[in-house]
Specification:
heterodimer, A: alpha/beta, TIM Barrel, eight-stranded parallel beta barrel, globular, B: alpha/beta, Rossmann fold
Chain lengths: 252, 202
Protein backbone atom coordinates (compact mmCIF):
# COMPACT_ATOMS: atom_id res chain seq x y z
CA UNK A 1 0.00 0.00 0.00
CA UNK A 2 0.92 3.63 -0.40
CA UNK A 3 3.04 4.87 2.49
CA UNK A 4 2.39 8.00 4.53
CA UNK A 5 4.64 10.81 3.34
CA UNK A 6 6.83 13.05 5.46
CA UNK A 7 7.55 16.33 3.73
CA UNK A 8 9.97 19.04 4.84
CA UNK A 9 9.23 22.49 3.47
CA UNK A 10 12.06 24.91 2.67
CA UNK A 11 11.54 28.65 2.25
CA UNK A 12 13.88 30.07 -0.35
CA UNK A 13 14.71 33.74 -0.76
CA UNK A 14 17.09 34.95 -3.47
CA UNK A 15 18.19 31.36 -4.06
CA UNK A 16 19.06 30.70 -0.41
CA UNK A 17 17.14 28.84 2.27
CA UNK A 18 15.98 31.15 5.02
CA UNK A 19 15.93 29.65 8.49
CA UNK A 20 18.86 27.43 7.52
CA UNK A 21 19.03 23.98 8.96
CA UNK A 22 21.08 23.69 12.08
CA UNK A 23 22.87 20.37 11.62
CA UNK A 24 26.38 19.18 11.96
CA UNK A 25 28.07 18.06 8.80
CA UNK A 26 26.49 20.63 6.54
CA UNK A 27 29.05 23.01 5.15
CA UNK A 28 26.47 25.48 3.89
CA UNK A 29 23.29 25.57 5.95
CA UNK A 30 21.54 27.88 3.48
CA UNK A 31 22.17 25.94 0.30
CA UNK A 32 18.97 24.42 -1.13
CA UNK A 33 21.08 21.76 -2.84
CA UNK A 34 22.85 20.68 0.34
CA UNK A 35 19.67 20.76 2.38
CA UNK A 36 17.74 18.89 -0.27
CA UNK A 37 20.41 16.21 -0.35
CA UNK A 38 20.45 16.04 3.45
CA UNK A 39 16.69 15.60 3.71
CA UNK A 40 16.60 13.14 0.85
CA UNK A 41 19.29 11.02 2.52
CA UNK A 42 17.49 10.91 5.87
CA UNK A 43 14.23 9.69 4.38
CA UNK A 44 12.12 12.68 3.31
CA UNK A 45 9.54 11.39 0.84
CA UNK A 46 9.17 14.63 -1.03
CA UNK A 47 10.54 18.15 -0.81
CA UNK A 48 8.62 21.40 -0.99
CA UNK A 49 10.47 24.51 -2.05
CA UNK A 50 8.62 27.70 -1.38
CA UNK A 51 9.90 30.78 -3.19
CA UNK A 52 9.34 33.80 -0.97
CA UNK A 53 11.26 36.18 -3.25
CA UNK A 54 9.46 39.25 -4.48
CA UNK A 55 11.82 40.47 -7.21
CA UNK A 56 12.36 39.23 -10.74
CA UNK A 57 16.09 38.75 -10.06
CA UNK A 58 15.20 36.62 -7.08
CA UNK A 59 12.89 34.53 -9.25
CA UNK A 60 15.75 33.86 -11.66
CA UNK A 61 18.01 32.78 -8.80
CA UNK A 62 15.24 30.50 -7.59
CA UNK A 63 14.82 28.73 -10.93
CA UNK A 64 18.58 28.34 -11.28
CA UNK A 65 18.85 26.75 -7.88
CA UNK A 66 15.78 24.59 -8.53
CA UNK A 67 17.44 23.21 -11.65
CA UNK A 68 20.49 22.35 -9.59
CA UNK A 69 18.39 20.68 -6.88
CA UNK A 70 16.41 18.68 -9.44
CA UNK A 71 19.57 17.41 -11.10
CA UNK A 72 21.02 16.02 -7.88
CA UNK A 73 18.01 14.91 -5.81
CA UNK A 74 15.81 12.19 -7.22
CA UNK A 75 12.61 12.31 -5.18
CA UNK A 76 9.45 14.25 -6.02
CA UNK A 77 9.80 18.04 -5.80
CA UNK A 78 6.93 20.42 -5.24
CA UNK A 79 7.37 24.12 -5.84
CA UNK A 80 5.22 26.95 -4.58
CA UNK A 81 5.35 30.68 -4.05
CA UNK A 82 4.57 33.28 -6.65
CA UNK A 83 2.65 30.92 -8.92
CA UNK A 84 0.12 33.18 -10.62
CA UNK A 85 0.04 32.17 -14.27
CA UNK A 86 0.51 29.18 -16.55
CA UNK A 87 3.89 30.66 -17.44
CA UNK A 88 4.87 30.27 -13.79
CA UNK A 89 3.87 26.60 -13.96
CA UNK A 90 5.91 26.20 -17.11
CA UNK A 91 8.92 27.99 -15.62
CA UNK A 92 9.25 25.70 -12.58
CA UNK A 93 8.24 22.46 -14.33
CA UNK A 94 11.01 23.00 -16.88
CA UNK A 95 13.48 23.20 -13.99
CA UNK A 96 12.49 19.73 -12.85
CA UNK A 97 9.61 20.33 -10.42
CA UNK A 98 7.04 17.52 -10.39
CA UNK A 99 4.18 19.38 -8.77
CA UNK A 100 3.26 23.03 -8.48
CA UNK A 101 1.52 24.47 -5.47
CA UNK A 102 -0.88 27.39 -5.87
CA UNK A 103 -2.38 29.53 -3.14
CA UNK A 104 -3.11 33.26 -3.60
CA UNK A 105 -2.71 32.87 -7.38
CA UNK A 106 -5.74 30.57 -7.45
CA UNK A 107 -7.76 33.04 -5.38
CA UNK A 108 -6.92 35.92 -7.73
CA UNK A 109 -7.51 33.93 -10.91
CA UNK A 110 -10.24 31.27 -10.68
CA UNK A 111 -9.19 29.89 -14.08
CA UNK A 112 -5.62 29.11 -13.01
CA UNK A 113 -6.30 25.67 -11.52
CA UNK A 114 -8.57 24.37 -14.30
CA UNK A 115 -6.21 25.58 -17.03
CA UNK A 116 -3.12 24.19 -15.32
CA UNK A 117 -4.86 20.86 -14.71
CA UNK A 118 -5.88 20.66 -18.33
CA UNK A 119 -2.37 21.34 -19.56
CA UNK A 120 -0.27 19.42 -17.04
CA UNK A 121 -2.71 16.95 -15.46
CA UNK A 122 -4.42 16.98 -12.06
CA UNK A 123 -1.52 15.18 -10.40
CA UNK A 124 0.67 18.21 -11.08
CA UNK A 125 -1.59 20.79 -9.44
CA UNK A 126 -1.49 21.19 -5.66
CA UNK A 127 -3.88 23.53 -3.87
CA UNK A 128 -2.30 25.10 -0.82
CA UNK A 129 -4.78 26.79 1.46
CA UNK A 130 -4.32 28.84 4.63
CA UNK A 131 -7.29 28.37 6.94
CA UNK A 132 -8.30 30.16 10.13
CA UNK A 133 -11.41 30.02 12.30
CA UNK A 134 -13.37 33.27 12.32
CA UNK A 135 -16.42 33.21 14.60
CA UNK A 136 -16.41 29.43 14.49
CA UNK A 137 -16.27 29.20 10.69
CA UNK A 138 -13.23 28.00 8.69
CA UNK A 139 -12.22 30.87 6.41
CA UNK A 140 -9.62 31.07 3.62
CA UNK A 141 -6.85 33.59 4.17
CA UNK A 142 -4.66 35.02 1.43
CA UNK A 143 -1.31 36.80 1.20
CA UNK A 144 0.56 34.47 3.51
CA UNK A 145 -2.29 34.35 6.02
CA UNK A 146 -2.64 38.12 6.46
CA UNK A 147 -5.89 38.75 4.63
CA UNK A 148 -9.30 37.21 5.26
CA UNK A 149 -10.86 36.48 1.87
CA UNK A 150 -14.22 35.81 3.53
CA UNK A 151 -14.48 32.54 1.59
CA UNK A 152 -15.65 29.45 3.44
CA UNK A 153 -12.73 27.01 3.44
CA UNK A 154 -14.51 23.72 2.75
CA UNK A 155 -16.46 25.28 -0.08
CA UNK A 156 -13.25 26.71 -1.61
CA UNK A 157 -11.30 23.47 -1.30
CA UNK A 158 -14.14 21.42 -2.80
CA UNK A 159 -14.43 23.83 -5.71
CA UNK A 160 -10.68 23.76 -6.43
CA UNK A 161 -10.59 19.95 -6.36
CA UNK A 162 -13.57 19.84 -8.71
CA UNK A 163 -11.63 22.20 -10.99
CA UNK A 164 -8.61 19.92 -11.11
CA UNK A 165 -6.44 20.30 -8.00
CA UNK A 166 -4.96 16.83 -7.51
CA UNK A 167 -3.82 17.32 -3.94
CA UNK A 168 -4.56 19.72 -1.06
CA UNK A 169 -2.13 21.11 1.50
CA UNK A 170 -4.17 22.32 4.46
CA UNK A 171 -2.28 24.81 6.55
CA UNK A 172 -4.03 25.75 9.78
CA UNK A 173 -3.17 29.28 10.88
CA UNK A 174 -4.72 28.51 14.28
CA UNK A 175 -2.25 25.71 15.07
CA UNK A 176 0.72 26.97 13.04
CA UNK A 177 3.68 27.78 15.27
CA UNK A 178 1.88 26.60 18.40
CA UNK A 179 3.63 23.19 18.28
CA UNK A 180 0.79 21.37 20.05
CA UNK A 181 -0.16 19.15 17.12
CA UNK A 182 -1.96 19.32 13.79
CA UNK A 183 -5.45 20.80 13.47
CA UNK A 184 -7.36 17.50 13.54
CA UNK A 185 -10.93 18.94 13.46
CA UNK A 186 -10.14 20.98 10.34
CA UNK A 187 -8.31 18.09 8.66
CA UNK A 188 -11.17 15.71 9.43
CA UNK A 189 -13.63 17.99 7.65
CA UNK A 190 -11.37 18.48 4.62
CA UNK A 191 -10.70 14.74 4.42
CA UNK A 192 -14.43 14.00 4.34
CA UNK A 193 -15.08 16.66 1.69
CA UNK A 194 -12.64 15.69 -1.09
CA UNK A 195 -11.27 12.53 -2.68
CA UNK A 196 -7.69 13.58 -3.41
CA UNK A 197 -4.63 13.29 -1.16
CA UNK A 198 -4.74 15.67 1.83
CA UNK A 199 -1.52 16.93 3.39
CA UNK A 200 -1.55 18.22 6.96
CA UNK A 201 0.46 21.34 7.70
CA UNK A 202 0.82 23.59 10.70
CA UNK A 203 1.18 22.67 14.33
CA UNK A 204 3.59 19.73 14.53
CA UNK A 205 5.85 20.11 17.54
CA UNK A 206 7.06 16.55 18.04
CA UNK A 207 7.22 13.13 16.39
CA UNK A 208 4.22 12.10 18.52
CA UNK A 209 2.12 14.72 16.75
CA UNK A 210 2.64 12.83 13.47
CA UNK A 211 1.71 9.52 15.14
CA UNK A 212 -1.47 11.13 16.49
CA UNK A 213 -2.27 12.59 13.07
CA UNK A 214 -2.05 9.26 11.24
CA UNK A 215 -3.71 7.27 14.05
CA UNK A 216 -6.65 9.65 14.48
CA UNK A 217 -7.03 10.36 10.78
CA UNK A 218 -5.72 7.29 8.93
CA UNK A 219 -6.81 8.69 5.56
CA UNK A 220 -4.58 11.76 5.73
CA UNK A 221 -1.78 11.14 3.25
CA UNK A 222 1.12 13.22 4.43
CA UNK A 223 2.47 15.52 7.11
CA UNK A 224 4.39 18.66 6.21
CA UNK A 225 6.55 20.74 8.51
CA UNK A 226 9.39 23.20 8.36
CA UNK A 227 11.12 24.51 11.47
CA UNK A 228 10.89 21.37 13.63
CA UNK A 229 12.87 19.54 10.96
CA UNK A 230 15.22 22.44 10.27
CA UNK A 231 16.11 22.93 13.92
CA UNK A 232 16.53 19.22 14.54
CA UNK A 233 13.70 18.99 17.07
CA UNK A 234 12.35 16.11 15.02
CA UNK A 235 14.72 13.95 12.97
CA UNK A 236 12.98 12.44 9.95
CA UNK A 237 14.75 9.08 10.27
CA UNK A 238 13.68 8.76 13.92
CA UNK A 239 10.18 10.00 13.14
CA UNK A 240 9.77 7.31 10.51
CA UNK A 241 10.98 4.60 12.88
CA UNK A 242 8.43 5.76 15.44
CA UNK A 243 5.65 5.73 12.84
CA UNK A 244 6.65 2.21 11.82
CA UNK A 245 6.60 1.03 15.43
CA UNK A 246 3.06 2.38 15.60
CA UNK A 247 2.05 0.28 12.59
CA UNK A 248 1.87 3.25 10.26
CA UNK A 249 3.11 2.41 6.79
CA UNK A 250 6.20 4.42 5.88
CA UNK A 251 9.14 4.17 3.51
CA UNK A 252 12.24 3.41 5.56
CA UNK B 1 25.78 5.71 -25.28
CA UNK B 2 22.24 5.39 -24.01
CA UNK B 3 19.49 7.17 -25.94
CA UNK B 4 16.31 8.54 -24.42
CA UNK B 5 13.65 8.45 -27.11
CA UNK B 6 12.18 11.91 -27.62
CA UNK B 7 8.80 11.73 -29.32
CA UNK B 8 7.34 14.90 -27.87
CA UNK B 9 5.77 13.68 -24.66
CA UNK B 10 6.84 14.74 -21.23
CA UNK B 11 9.73 16.41 -19.56
CA UNK B 12 12.93 14.40 -19.81
CA UNK B 13 15.05 16.59 -17.57
CA UNK B 14 14.90 14.41 -14.44
CA UNK B 15 15.54 11.21 -16.35
CA UNK B 16 18.58 12.64 -18.14
CA UNK B 17 19.85 14.10 -14.84
CA UNK B 18 19.49 10.80 -13.01
CA UNK B 19 21.49 8.98 -15.69
CA UNK B 20 24.18 11.62 -15.61
CA UNK B 21 24.23 11.34 -11.79
CA UNK B 22 25.01 7.60 -11.96
CA UNK B 23 27.70 8.26 -14.55
CA UNK B 24 25.85 7.06 -17.65
CA UNK B 25 26.29 9.09 -20.79
CA UNK B 26 22.95 9.69 -22.49
CA UNK B 27 21.44 11.63 -25.34
CA UNK B 28 17.84 12.76 -25.82
CA UNK B 29 16.98 12.20 -29.45
CA UNK B 30 14.25 11.67 -32.01
CA UNK B 31 16.74 10.90 -34.79
CA UNK B 32 16.38 7.25 -35.93
CA UNK B 33 20.11 7.11 -36.74
CA UNK B 34 21.08 8.19 -33.23
CA UNK B 35 18.66 5.69 -31.72
CA UNK B 36 20.03 2.90 -33.94
CA UNK B 37 23.61 3.71 -32.95
CA UNK B 38 22.83 3.80 -29.22
CA UNK B 39 23.73 0.72 -27.21
CA UNK B 40 20.51 0.89 -25.18
CA UNK B 41 17.22 2.76 -25.30
CA UNK B 42 14.80 4.26 -22.81
CA UNK B 43 11.22 4.93 -23.87
CA UNK B 44 9.77 7.51 -21.46
CA UNK B 45 6.22 8.81 -21.45
CA UNK B 46 3.57 10.74 -19.61
CA UNK B 47 0.05 11.60 -20.69
CA UNK B 48 -2.49 9.52 -22.56
CA UNK B 49 -1.70 6.21 -24.26
CA UNK B 50 -3.55 6.88 -27.51
CA UNK B 51 -1.85 10.21 -28.05
CA UNK B 52 1.62 8.81 -27.30
CA UNK B 53 1.14 5.72 -29.48
CA UNK B 54 0.06 7.98 -32.33
CA UNK B 55 3.13 10.20 -31.92
CA UNK B 56 5.38 7.13 -32.06
CA UNK B 57 3.64 5.98 -35.24
CA UNK B 58 3.62 9.37 -36.95
CA UNK B 59 7.35 9.85 -36.33
CA UNK B 60 8.11 6.30 -37.48
CA UNK B 61 9.90 5.70 -34.20
CA UNK B 62 7.64 2.73 -33.44
CA UNK B 63 9.39 0.81 -36.23
CA UNK B 64 12.82 1.86 -35.00
CA UNK B 65 12.03 0.71 -31.45
CA UNK B 66 10.60 -2.63 -32.65
CA UNK B 67 13.57 -3.32 -34.93
CA UNK B 68 16.19 -2.40 -32.34
CA UNK B 69 14.43 -4.50 -29.69
CA UNK B 70 14.32 -7.43 -32.13
CA UNK B 71 18.10 -7.15 -32.54
CA UNK B 72 18.45 -7.68 -28.79
CA UNK B 73 19.24 -4.09 -27.80
CA UNK B 74 18.28 -3.41 -24.16
CA UNK B 75 15.08 -1.33 -24.06
CA UNK B 76 13.40 0.09 -20.97
CA UNK B 77 9.97 1.71 -20.96
CA UNK B 78 9.13 4.03 -18.08
CA UNK B 79 5.59 4.73 -16.83
CA UNK B 80 3.49 5.22 -19.99
CA UNK B 81 6.60 4.03 -21.86
CA UNK B 82 6.25 0.65 -20.12
CA UNK B 83 2.58 0.45 -21.03
CA UNK B 84 3.40 1.18 -24.68
CA UNK B 85 5.48 -2.02 -24.82
CA UNK B 86 2.26 -4.05 -24.56
CA UNK B 87 -0.23 -5.02 -27.26
CA UNK B 88 -3.16 -2.85 -26.36
CA UNK B 89 -4.56 -0.25 -23.98
CA UNK B 90 -8.12 0.63 -23.07
CA UNK B 91 -7.32 4.19 -21.99
CA UNK B 92 -10.13 6.32 -23.47
CA UNK B 93 -10.92 3.90 -26.28
CA UNK B 94 -8.87 1.04 -27.60
CA UNK B 95 -5.33 1.66 -28.83
CA UNK B 96 -2.56 -0.56 -30.16
CA UNK B 97 0.81 -0.45 -28.45
CA UNK B 98 4.17 -1.69 -29.72
CA UNK B 99 3.27 -5.31 -29.05
CA UNK B 100 6.75 -6.22 -27.77
CA UNK B 101 5.17 -7.86 -24.72
CA UNK B 102 1.93 -9.84 -24.60
CA UNK B 103 -0.89 -8.31 -22.58
CA UNK B 104 -3.13 -5.31 -22.13
CA UNK B 105 -3.30 -2.07 -20.18
CA UNK B 106 -6.55 -1.47 -18.31
CA UNK B 107 -8.04 1.28 -16.14
CA UNK B 108 -8.19 1.31 -12.35
CA UNK B 109 -11.62 2.91 -12.44
CA UNK B 110 -14.25 0.32 -11.63
CA UNK B 111 -11.65 -2.20 -10.50
CA UNK B 112 -10.63 -0.50 -7.24
CA UNK B 113 -12.73 -0.27 -4.13
CA UNK B 114 -14.28 3.16 -3.59
CA UNK B 115 -12.03 4.34 -0.78
CA UNK B 116 -8.88 4.09 -2.92
CA UNK B 117 -7.94 7.18 -4.85
CA UNK B 118 -7.15 7.31 -8.56
CA UNK B 119 -4.43 7.97 -9.69
CA UNK B 120 -2.28 5.56 -7.72
CA UNK B 121 0.22 8.16 -6.59
CA UNK B 122 2.97 7.91 -4.01
CA UNK B 123 5.58 5.53 -2.63
CA UNK B 124 4.65 1.86 -2.73
CA UNK B 125 6.56 -1.36 -2.01
CA UNK B 126 7.90 -3.64 -4.73
CA UNK B 127 7.09 -7.33 -4.46
CA UNK B 128 9.77 -9.11 -6.44
CA UNK B 129 8.11 -12.10 -8.14
CA UNK B 130 10.97 -13.55 -10.14
CA UNK B 131 14.62 -12.85 -10.59
CA UNK B 132 15.67 -10.14 -13.01
CA UNK B 133 18.98 -8.44 -13.77
CA UNK B 134 17.16 -5.19 -12.91
CA UNK B 135 17.01 -6.25 -9.27
CA UNK B 136 20.75 -6.68 -8.89
CA UNK B 137 21.04 -3.83 -6.35
CA UNK B 138 17.60 -3.79 -4.71
CA UNK B 139 15.58 -6.04 -2.42
CA UNK B 140 12.01 -7.16 -1.92
CA UNK B 141 9.91 -4.48 -0.20
CA UNK B 142 11.94 -1.51 -1.42
CA UNK B 143 9.76 1.50 -2.16
CA UNK B 144 9.40 3.31 -5.47
CA UNK B 145 7.34 6.29 -6.64
CA UNK B 146 4.21 5.74 -8.77
CA UNK B 147 1.89 8.13 -10.61
CA UNK B 148 -0.66 6.42 -12.90
CA UNK B 149 -4.34 5.62 -13.45
CA UNK B 150 -4.01 2.71 -15.89
CA UNK B 151 -2.11 -0.51 -15.25
CA UNK B 152 -1.07 -3.93 -16.43
CA UNK B 153 -2.56 -6.62 -14.14
CA UNK B 154 0.03 -8.21 -11.88
CA UNK B 155 -0.43 -11.72 -13.31
CA UNK B 156 1.05 -10.84 -16.71
CA UNK B 157 3.59 -13.39 -17.94
CA UNK B 158 6.31 -10.70 -18.29
CA UNK B 159 5.77 -9.27 -14.81
CA UNK B 160 8.80 -9.63 -12.55
CA UNK B 161 7.65 -7.27 -9.75
CA UNK B 162 4.24 -6.13 -8.57
CA UNK B 163 2.85 -3.53 -6.19
CA UNK B 164 -0.32 -3.85 -4.16
CA UNK B 165 -2.98 -1.17 -4.34
CA UNK B 166 -6.26 -2.88 -3.58
CA UNK B 167 -5.23 -5.18 -6.41
CA UNK B 168 -1.97 -6.53 -7.77
CA UNK B 169 -0.50 -4.30 -10.45
CA UNK B 170 2.60 -4.72 -12.57
CA UNK B 171 5.48 -2.62 -11.28
CA UNK B 172 8.29 -4.06 -13.40
CA UNK B 173 8.34 -6.19 -16.52
CA UNK B 174 11.20 -7.95 -18.19
CA UNK B 175 11.44 -10.40 -21.04
CA UNK B 176 14.97 -10.89 -22.32
CA UNK B 177 16.23 -7.45 -23.47
CA UNK B 178 12.85 -5.70 -23.16
CA UNK B 179 11.93 -4.31 -19.75
CA UNK B 180 9.91 -1.58 -18.12
CA UNK B 181 8.91 0.15 -14.91
CA UNK B 182 5.42 1.46 -14.18
CA UNK B 183 6.94 3.68 -11.48
CA UNK B 184 9.43 6.51 -12.01
CA UNK B 185 12.97 5.26 -11.24
CA UNK B 186 14.24 8.84 -11.73
CA UNK B 187 12.01 9.94 -8.81
CA UNK B 188 12.47 6.91 -6.57
CA UNK B 189 15.59 7.92 -4.68
CA UNK B 190 18.48 5.45 -4.30
CA UNK B 191 16.29 2.46 -5.18
CA UNK B 192 15.32 4.03 -8.49
CA UNK B 193 18.90 4.96 -9.34
CA UNK B 194 19.94 1.37 -8.53
CA UNK B 195 17.40 0.02 -11.03
CA UNK B 196 18.65 2.40 -13.72
CA UNK B 197 22.23 1.37 -12.94
CA UNK B 198 21.29 -2.31 -13.25
CA UNK B 199 19.56 -1.64 -16.59
CA UNK B 200 22.74 0.01 -17.86
CA UNK B 201 24.65 -3.15 -17.00
CA UNK B 202 22.08 -5.42 -18.64
Amino acid sequence: MITKRIIPCLDVKNGRVVKGVNFEGLSDVSSPVELGRFYSSCGADELVFYDITASAEGRKLFTDILTEVASTIFIPLTVGGGINTLDDFDRVLKCGADKVSVNSGAIRDPDLIPRAAERYGDQCVVLSVDVKRVDGVFRVFAKGGRENTGMEALEWITRCVRNGAGEVVVNSIDTDGVKKGFDLPLLREVRAAVKVPVIASGGAGSAEDFVTLFKELPDIDAGLAASIFHFGEVKISELKMMLKQNDISVRI
Amino acid sequence: MLAIIDYGVGNLFSLASSLSYIGVESVISSDPEVLRRADRLILPGVGAFGDAAKKLRVTGLDTVVREEAAKGKPLMGICLGMQLLFEKSYEYGEHDGLGLLPGEVVGMKGRLSDELMIPHIGWNALELKSSSPLFKYIKNGDHVYFVHSFFVPGDNESTVATAEYGLSLTATVQKNNVCGCQFHPEKSGEVGLSILRAFCEM
